[in-house]
Amino acid sequence: MKMMKAAFLPGDSTVELKKVPVPEPGHGEVLLAVKASTICGSDIRAIYREHLGKGPEGYQGVIAGHEPAGQIVATGPGCRRFKVGDRVIVYHISGCGVCNDCRRGYMISCTSAEYRRAYGWQRDGGMAEYLLAEEKDLIHLPDSLTYLDGAQVACGFGTVYEALQKVGIDGSHAVLITGLGPVGLAAGALCRKLGAEKIIGVDISAERRQIALNLGLCDYVLSAGPENVNEVREFTGGEGVERAVDCSGNADARAVAIRATRKWGKMVMVGEGGTVAFNPSPDIIHDQKTIYGSWVTSTWLMEELVERLVRWNLHPEDIVTHRFPLEQASEAYSLMASGHCGKVAVCPGAE
Ligand SMILES: [Zn+2]
Ligand SMILES: [Zn+2]
């Protein structure tokens, strides 16, 4: 039996590398050689440090990693579109395919308790040499995008693209991004291409603020603190921003994003976990503001995003600051947990 290396997360801030059998694709399934697998903030928050997640975030002791891209090396019977040699991205939640949410392409919110299984959470993920995936979860990765670009399309850039579609971004908008981790950096990159007039970023980490400036993803960056609302107003003629995107999941940062949004403006929450406190009358009602929530994205919007990335010559790989071989997955996760980085990637087969 052919064996492969794979990384598991026991939940005490360590990574366990094990040898497991290479799976064989069944009906409607493909086997990918994993080329790139990036680490997500939610892996750290809900799995790596300790197993906190319930329901869709419940980690079932499977091979970790829900942000893979790779090349098909085998197909099972019944595949209809993809073939050996194709470069692909994996939508990171495999849904039942036939509930209302799945039919809309939002397998993230599949309502089937029996069939909804996320890669790296309830079914084996991409921190391994090979990954078994369902054909219906695949998105074509064009030749002009790298595997590291592809790995970030589903969860990272896709999640942001969805949120930005909800609030709409155009050239008349100043945009505030609270939280400049990989998702916030993706928001900066996409707002830039969508033509935002001014992009202001907030983060507690000086390293992350510097990454945002170095890559030209923000025009101004602010150190997170109690003066942020006033500082944002100073950059926007005293009015505040037309659009705000919270990528922090932090209570204070969310309140800043709500309060620094101008009259008739829109704010969207992407960052997960935590709480927020605000005063509805002065903070949103009297200024006619709208608050959106946005969870991941859909398969059709992911395909649209991939097409746009090619047309824009936008490479999500640019926010990857560190790459590790699979043998060093442990170093990769501990760096991501430290926050002293942009996006961190594991590239199986690179060693
Ligand atoms: Zn993710
Ligand atoms: Zn479903």
Largest sheet: 7 strands, mixed
User: What is the CATH topology of the largest domain?
Assistant: Quinone Oxidoreductase, Chain A, domain 1
Q: State Rg.
A: 20 Å
* Poorly predicted segments: none
Mean pLDDT value: 96
CATH class descriptor of the largest domain: Alpha Beta
Number of helices: 11
Helix content estimate: 25-40%
Number of domains: 2
**Could you tell me the number of beta strands?**
17
Strand proportion, as a percent range, falls in 25-35%
Order of helices and strands: EEEHEEEHEEEHHEHEHEHEHEHEHEHE
Q: How would you describe what is shown here?
A:
The chain has helices at 41-48, 100-103, 147-151, 153-167, 182-193, 206-214, 228-235, 251-259, 280-285, 299-312, 329-338, and strands at residues 3-8, 16-21, 29-38, 68-75, 87-90, 93-94, 117-118, 130-134, 138-140, 174-178, 198-203, 220-223, 241-246, 261-269, 290-293, 320-324, 343-346. Helix content is 28%, strand content 25%. The mean pLDDT is 96. Helix 4 crosses helix 5 (182-193) and helix 4 (153-167) crosses helix 10 (299-312). Strands 3, 4, 5, 8, 9, 16 and 17 form a seven-stranded mixed β-sheet that branches. Strands 12-11-10-13-14-15 form a six-stranded parallel β-sheet, with helices on both faces. It has two domains: 3-146 and 315-346, Alpha-Beta Complex (Quinone Oxidoreductase, Chain A, domain 1); 160-293, Rossmann fold. The chain is α/β, with parallel strands linked by helices and 351 residues long. The two termini are 22 Å apart. The longest helix has 15 residues, at 153-167. Bound molecules: zinc ion (2 copies). The site of one zinc ion has 8 residues, from helix 2.
